[in-house]
């Protein structure tokens, strides 16, 4: 249950969040340069929380009793707080 509490979503869930993402090409070092500029920003928690706002419970992954499904959903909800 604790492990699933960290579930951040699938590619389909994150499509709106990734819509304006820049694609890095080997010949283009711009993103590597920007990554170096942001080296000490420590924005991981903020980025993760933003990703969580797009996730949805994956109804088609788990086959379990209703009480177990409720516990999985509660584990997901616990991370958002």
Structure description:
By secondary structure, this protein is mainly alpha-helical. It has one domain. Helices cover 49% and strands 0% of the residues. The chain is built from four helices and no strands.
Individual helix count: 4
Average pLDDT for all residues? 84
State the low-pLDDT regions, or none: none
Shape: elongated
Q: Find the count of extended strands (DSSP E, 2+ residues).
A: 0
Q: Report the structural category.
A: mainly alpha
How many separate domains make up the residues? 1
Strand residues, percent: under 5%
Along the chain, the helix and strand elements come as HHHH
Question: How far do the termini sit from each other?
Answer: 16 Å
The level of helicity is 40-55%
Layout of secondary structure:
Blueprint: H1 11-18, H2 30-37, H3 44-52, H4 66-80
In a nutshell, what does this entry contain?
This protein has four helices and no strands. The protein is an all-alpha fold and 81 residues long. It has one domain (4-80).
Task: Kindly list the characteristics that best describe this protein.
81 residues, mainly alpha
């Amino acid at each position: 249950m604790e492990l699933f509490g960290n579930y951040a979503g699938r590619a389909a869930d994150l499509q709106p969040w990734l819509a304006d993402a820049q694609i890095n090409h080997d010949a283009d070092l711009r993103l590597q340069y920007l990554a170096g500029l942001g080296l000490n920003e420590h924005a991981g928690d903020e980025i993760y929380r933003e990703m969580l706002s797009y996730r949805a419970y994956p109804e088609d992954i788990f086959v379990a009793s209703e009480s177990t499904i409720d516990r999985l959903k509660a584990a997901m909800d616990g991370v958002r707080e």
